[in-house]
UniProtKB/TrEMBL annotation, chain A:
Residues 90-280 form the ABC transmembrane type-1 domain. GO terms for biological process: transmembrane transport. Belongs to the binding-protein-dependent transport system permease family. This is Cellobiose transport system permease protein. Pfam families: BPD_transp_1 (PF00528). SUPFAM superfamilies: MetI-like. Residues 1-20 are annotated as: Disordered. It is a multi-pass membrane protein. It is found in: Cell membrane.
């Protein structure tokens, strides 16, 4: 007992003058983090509990925190409502997120490369314009954007929830920063000396060199697009096949909402993102720590 | 952080070069490649942004000055400042403004303070380092739509988990709190959802700034006898000030546009009313209701311009205030 009592003091003496990042985490640290993690994970876990339970679980006192065995029944109910409504909405979410992600990666890496490695008049001023556009919340023109989409005849279609998000200022900014560091000037120069055209340099030299950045931007974009709610709600509410977020709010609307069913659907719509976090968690962390400004 | 090594230079084999006869056309091609292609490469961004980002904001200003109703297309004349004048006397708008600010304060302040604490915990040599960092991002990747539906159940009046927890510590055993009935309680419930979602994200932003603080600063502080708590407030916080300002501005912009949580906290989200008496109706929600429920797009556009101005003012004030608070000492 006495030995354990003296040891912490010794350690804290040893730590004096050390930067926090060099200090080993104490048990307080782990306790604090574990508590925070539990609070972060709890709503997700409870979503799963209700998604697997019967109607009573929602209002049980004290709350039941053990998953039930009704998952299959609840899923069956969600997926058979209005024929293929929910399944189609999930597919739509995939289409929209994949299209936005692919386009963001392509256009932003291309522009980022031009800003980082090519010399052309007005480059620095144009880059400042890009950085300024970062601060504009694009939700502010929402009414006019809706009218514009109507003029194009896209209201109520998936195109209308893809097109406004095809590029992002953050993507250009992020790609430029990465390419400046990760692709040496000599490499670009020597390829051009050998006669490669700019697009060729971009395609065969730059793109392979920036795979980590593509992964980061791709993951962040996919997550953000998948979770987008307001604009799809405006565009796709009431259509037979919206995105899954709109479908969920639709399931939760009405006078008699069956929560186990809604949350089973919510759980299904969350799983792809949990898988992404599991597979690409480190990349997402790095992307945010390098200053993601995804609004 | 080192990035992956670049691949070896691609050397084009000599036989790929074209014979001399094509010299002139190649010359033209290379000139085009040098002068024009850079602009072509950046043009998709600028074209798409101009069309779907910038133009709508400007066009919004025109729509705001017109009558523009979805249910009455014939009524589309110039309205001048009528929409804005109506705004000044619209009780719903002022109510929504108060709600938005209330929820904004209740969510931003705890959010950033707790994020700072979590970042301070993460800023150690930890076992399973990435596990913790990835873990705090669980709320960030969870769709707001999904998590808000869960919170809506947690904050139910009868048999909700929040009320059950309160009853354990002796509150409201005889009359459970109706979270949706009052301004203050609905604001707390919604702020809780916002806090839950964004603390981990902000913590990572702070962490990255903390890790780039030079280590000798802490040595110097230790000589002066500063303990961990003083170090946090006297060294770490002032030194990550740029990121602090950044997160304050970011959460201001996000907080003033709050939409998803108030929408889905409603027992019937399609109503978009923000409670039986608009207790928690936010401006973004009101814009949606005026535009797409009442079908008055002109008025909705005027509201979003007003929101834009408010965001600009508050973000600027915030940046100045945070600058003063943190920077006065240095």
């Amino acid at each position: 007992m006495t030995a354990t009592a003296t040891r912490p003091r010794k350690r804290s003496l040893k730590n004096i003058g050390r930067a926090p990042q060099d200090t080993r985490g104490s048990w307080h640290t782990y306790l604090g983090l574990a508590a925070f993690l539990a609070l972060s994970a709890f709503p997700l876990y409870w979503m799963f509990v209700i998604a697997t339970s019967d109607d009573e679980a929602v209002s049980q006192i004290p709350p039941s925190v053990v998953p039930g065995d009704q998952l299959m029944e609840n899923l069956h109910e969600v997926f058979t409502m209005q024929q293929v409504y929910f399944a189609a909405s999930l597919i739509n979410s995939f289409i929209v997120s994949a299209a936005v992600t692919a386009s963001t990666l392509f256009f932003c890496s291309m522009a980022g490369f031009a800003f980082a490695k090519l010399r052309f008049p007005g480059r620095d001023k144009l880059m400042i314009v890009v950085i300024l556009t970062l601060t504009i919340p694009n939700q502010l023109g929402i009414v006019a954007l809706y009218i514009l989409m109507g003029k194009f005849g896209w209201n109520g279609t998936l195109v209308s929830v893809i097109v406004p998000f095809l590029v992002s200022a953050f993507g250009v900014f992020y790609m430029r920063q990465f390419i400046m560091q990760a692709v040496p000037d000599e490499l670009v120069e020597s390829a051009r000396m050998d006669g490669a055209l700019t697009m060729r340099v971009y395609w065969s030299i730059v793109l392979p060199a920036i795979r980590p950045a593509l992964a980061v931007l791709g993951l962040l974009t996919f997550v953000a697009t998948w979770n987008e709610f307001q604009w799809p709600l405006i565009q796709l509410n009431g259509t037979p096949f919206p995105t899954s977020m709109v479908a969920l709010s639709d399931l939760a609307s009405g006078n008699y909402v069956i929560y186990r069913r809604v949350l089973a659907g919510a759980f299904v719509a969350t799983v792809p993102l949990l898988v992404l976090l599991l597979l690409g968690g480190r990349q997402i962390v790095r992307g945010i720590m390098e200053g993601a400004v995804k609004s | 952080m080192t990035h992956s090594a670049p691949p070896t230079p691609a050397t084009e084999p000599a036989h790929h070069r074209k014979p001399k006869s094509g010299y002139k056309s190649r010359n033209w091609l290379h000139r085009f490649d040098n002068k024009r292609v850079p602009y072509l490469m950046i043009s998709p961004f600028f074209l798409l942004f101009a069309l779907f980002g910038l133009f709508p904001i400007v066009f919004n200003g025109i729509v705001a000055m017109r009558n523009w109703r979805l249910d009455d297309p014939a009524l589309d004349g110039w309205a001048g400042f009528a929409n804005f004048e109506r705004l000044l006397h619209d009780e719903d708008f002022w109510n929504a403004l108060v709600n938005t600010f209330g929820i904004f304060v209740l969510s931003t302040v705890p959010q950033l303070l707790i994020a700072l604490m979590v970042a301070n915990l993460l800023n150690r040599r930890l076992r399973a380092n990435s596990f913790w960092r990835v873990g705090v991002l669980l709320p960030y990747v969870t769709p707001v739509v999904a998590s808000t539906l869960v919170f809506a159940i947690i904050f139910a009046r009868d048999n909700g988990m929040a009320n059950w927890l309160l009853s354990l510590v002796g509150f409201g055993q005889d009359a459970p709190l109706d979270w949706r009935a009052y301004k203050w309680s609905s604001w707390i419930a919604i702020a809780t959802m916002v806090n839950w979602k964004w603390i981990g994200y902000n913590a990572l932003l702070y962490l990255s700034a903390m890790q780039s603080i030079p280590k000798d600063v802490y040595e110097a502080a230790a000589v002066d006898g500063a303990g961990p708590w003083r170090q946090l407030w006297r060294i770490t916080v002032p030194m990550i000030q740029p990121v602090l300002i950044f997160t304050v501005v970011l959460s201001t912009i996000g907080g003033l546009q709050l939409f998803n949580e108030p929408m889905l906290f409603e027992e019937n989200p399609a109503a978009a009313s923000g409670g039986s008496d608009h207790q928690w109706q936010t401006i973004a929600q009101l814009i949606y209701k005026v535009g797409w429920k009442d079908l008055n797009l002109g008025y909705a556009a005027a509201m979003s311009w007003a929101l834009f101005l408010i965001i600009l003012i508050v973000a600027a004030l915030n940046a100045v205030a945070t600058n003063r608070l943190g920077g006065g000492r240095r």
